[in-house]
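SEQUENCE, STRUCTURE TOKENS:
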Amino acid sequence: MHLQVMNRFAILSVLVLMVVGCYNASSYSGDGTLTDNGYSSAIDRYVLDLEAVEIGSQYENQYRLKGLPSEEFTIGLRIRSGEPIEIVKDSGMLTGSFELELVRDSGEVVISEIGDLSEWVWSYCSGCTDGFIYRRGEQAEERLASGGIHLRKIGERIDAGWGTYITPDPEQTYLLTVRLNAESSMPISAAVTAKTGGWK
């Protein structure tokens, strides 16, 4: 029995290594830098850092993305401040409009989101001075026969484009357009970033 358990563990270990080893961050050939924080990462397994954005001036740029892993990414704006992000958000220290558009080489739209920064999702932990601004798509509640609730995504596009979420095709090339027109009453650094989850 002990030998059978050991054999099963060995087989499982090999399968895990095969799965986690099937993508290498060096396969990415687009703009920016893709970092693989390892399969044991609880959050932010893959992080694509594109470019720092200057707050206080009208910003627009385009980025070419190619060879991303087929994982669910969220594209957004990473911000850092001298104050906790909840204070920055609630006091209106950072205001303005933000636009993200992602299209395939073929011209098919994957992401198209624009709006005031107050309308976007601000993700941060209590007391933290860094955060992430992104957008969810529309969704609707559907009641299941079991009595539970299922959330159905509305308007999901090709490559699971929904809000600023995407599950890219590694063989595809994408063009990301970013426009930010924002003002801040205190020093805030920002950068265009795309990231995945982890094992959590």
About this structure: Residues 184 and 197 are 29 Å apart (CA to CA). DSSP finds two helices and 13 strands in the chain. The helical segments are 2-20, 85-90. The two ends are 32 Å apart (CA to CA).
